[in-house]
Amino acid sequence: MIEHFSSCKSPQQIMGLLAKTYYARAQGIDPSKIIMVSIMPCTSKKCELTRTEEMFASGYQDVDYALTTRELARMIKQTGKDFVNLPESEPDHILGDYTGAGVIFGSTGGVMEAALRSAYYFITGNNLAQLECEDIRGLAGVKKMSLRIGNAPVRVAVAHGLGNVTAVLDQVREAKAKGKPAPYDFIEVMACPGGCVGGGGQPYGVTNEIRALRAQGLYADDRSKKIRYAHENPFVKKLYEEFLQKPLSSISHELLRTHYVPRGDV
Ligand code: SF4
Fold first, then answer.
1. Which residues span the domain enclosing 169?
2. According to the model, what pLDDT value does residue 265 have?
């Protein structure tokens, strides 16, 4: 199935390369002096840092260190700080702000929902009337939804937890073996049950109840954001105007894309 994978890099890698190119240039900082540390729900992010030469797109290692949320929590506790009662503050700009579409990436179905919000706009010129895709939220192992985008019916599936991913891919293989079209146009896959809210780097002791509460937190954050579509994020728009030119431009291809290879029996 590798040829069908999205070639878009992960948020970790995109943020790293932008920090050492666009951000460095805008702030007048020598990129060799930037140490990029990401805080992730995922132990696999450590492995991703040097996965291919594409992870050095800035000319440096794009992300220097990946810490899990569990490691960060331990470090904060070691400082003795009362983290819960720290004063709120605004993120640094130019790359600090995020939209509702960005925050829901952490839950199963969230990447699909965020992508549909923007795909619908780019194809039809209008924003989706029904912003929240309830059919693909929640902890059911495989979720499905159909919608029309312009004149085209679009069928999507969302699977999380590797057993459920296998079940969806088997449906695609079966259709192919019978010479039928694939049952879905777009499939979201997350390895961890619940998505990144239940990621391997998150605090221990996760249950479905905790996964659901964490997802509710993300959806509440989405609802509280003034901007809930990625394509309306003024900082992303500025990034394209000043640096990446436009989606699918040659520089965005060069910097934002990756590829995968079979790993055999590792
Ligand atoms: S779903 Fe799991 S493996 Fe995939 S990025 Fe999230 S935490 Fe990592």
1. 98-232
2. 60
